[in-house]
Every structure is written in C-alpha cells, then in structure tokens.
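Risk register update: the risk of archive-format incompatibility is retired. Evidence:
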Amino acid sequence: MTFPGGEHPVTPASAKRQVAARPTLAVVGATGAVGRVLVELLATRADVWGEVRLFAGPEGVGSEVPVLGRTEIVRALEPGCFEGTDIVLFEAPEDVVLEWAPLAVASGAVAVDGSAAFRLHRDVPLVVPEINPAAARMRRIGIIAAPRCATLVLTVALAALHAEFGLSRLVVTAALAASGRGRIGVDALRRQTAEVAGDPTVGTRTGDLRRAVSEHDDDPFEAPLAYNLLPWAGDSVEDGWSSEELGLRNETRKILGLPELPISATCLRVPVVSGHSLTVHAEFEREPDVHRVREILDSSAGVIVYDDPDKGEFPTPADVVGSDPTWVGRVRRSLDDPGGLELFLCGDNLRKGAALNCVQIAELVAAEQPPAAAGTDSGEV
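Archived output:
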C-alpha cells in the first residue's frame, strides 16, 4: 500500500518480530488461472502469514501482484529460492512440481501440490480438509497433495453420506468447464464463441461448426467447444478411459478410504467458462431417506443444498461461480434401486476445486503446534 508522498510507514521492531515469527509462504504458479485465484483468496482468510513469495514461469516473472495489502514481484524458480520458506504451494504443471517440490522439502518446507504429480503416491496424503484433515500430518516425504477439481466437488458432498449410509457404488458423469484447461481453455472458448455467435445457421448442418471455427496450433480441445459438447476430457490412458476419468475414480477411493469402491466415471467438456457439474448415482449399504440426506448435507461443511425444481431452484455453473461450497440439487431416490440416490452437484473449479483447498491445507500445516517436521511421519492417524 502506498502512502502520501510515496513512502511507507516505519514498522516498529516489535511488529517486525511478530511478522517474522509467522510462517513464510511461497506460491509457485502465481500468475496462472488457479494461482491468481489462490493469491486473491489469501486476503479473505485468517491472517496467519508473514512473508509471501510468488513464483511463476518466464511469462510471469517480473510482474507485480497485490497480495495481503502489499505488492510482490513475481520471481523465477532458481536454486535456493525456497530457503527460509515454511510452506510452498504448487499450482504448476506436473513436470515443474516433480522437479521443484523435492527441492522445497529439502530446504525445510512442506510442499502442497495442486497438480496430479503426487496424488496417488503411497507416501503422500491426499487431503480435503472438510473430510480428512488429520491426514495432512502423515506426510512421510514432506509433500501433501490436493485432488483434482471434480473429485473435490464430489467428495465434499459424499463423505458425510457415506458415514451415515455406507457407500457401495458410484456412477458419475462430470461436465467439466473450459477453465479446467487453464487460461488457454477459456481463451479458446471465448474466441470460438465470438466466431460463431453472429451466424444463426451454425450448428444446423453436419460439419458447419468445424468449418466456422478457425484452427489454432495451441487449441486445447479435440473439437470445437462453442455450441458443442465433447465426450472426452484428459489424456488417453488405457482401454478407452481418460486420465480425468481414472483420476476421479482413484482419488475418490483414496480420500474416502474405500480402495475397492466400484466407480464408473465419464468426463465431458462443456462450453462453460468456470464451474464443474456432476450427475451422481450413488448406491448405499443402508437405504437412504431423502429427508435425512438433506439434513446431513445441510449440516456438512462446504456444502449448500439448493433444491426446489418446482420453483426453478437448482445449482448451475453460472450461478455458483465465484463461491466456495459444493452446491447440491436434484436430490431424489432412485426409482429402481431402494439403496440408490440421485444427485446433481456443482462447484467453482478454480476456487474450492483447486485454489481454496490448497490454501486450507497450508493453514492446517501452519496451525500445527509444534509444526511436524517436513519429510517425517508425525505418527498421528
């Protein structure tokens, strides 16, 4: 903050010592789509941080970013850059995390990874603070992972229902927003929409959408997304499944502690800027009562029930964007399965789906008294 005359007030020595005593936070990927949201979120959370260091790739280095009432210059990753940090948040590509997260741990920091690099590593806890906060202490190699956006939207709603009724099977269709591919995804959707919006005939004849949308070498989607829907998201993995689908399956199992839970997931890419949506068929060991289901969801942290279709009340991506909770609607019993429940879930993939969860994990680590040493197992369950 700049004061009259362009000067900053003198900070008393006692205040300097107080700031210095607070943990130092580093954010890697601070200028990306999720990183920007994460930095903004810091100002809305508890005042627990001292120094905050921001890092990014070459395109972001040198830029000025406001954080916690002051302006920070974005730095480049370089040897020794994490010395003196306590927690390093990574919102960066997997190859960057694989290289730099171990270096952060070696410098004495705890690494919190928002990418897929360590999510399924046996010695890395996969943490959703509303569900398994104690797991954050079980960081045997000094790294804590956060799940993918769709997994977060799903598990925040399902964890309490599992505790009450015993989850036995899941069938999920995830409609993923363009921002799931970062800024390049949003830019491609906006460009494509602008190209076709003025032609009322586009979408009425085979192939006309592909002809109307210009091709770019850096397009992140396999086909035009504007005025369209793609039955694919992620990379090809095996037997026709995508990385998004198997990731959703495996991460949900790990977070809920159900390694054998049958899960079938289909991931779509939809022409939505931000906000992932999921249709869920959940089967339980004990027959769920819809009234009790609503009570549980209403009292669950990070969940809002918005469900009265007769009044036009149900969550949509455009309505929940910019909010933190998982929104739940269309709650109903399955018609042909006494133990089945149907749900529609919606959440902002850039906020709780990515940035907020990492910030919450960092706050868990910062609150440890005394802090568990990075790279060691605290022995707590």
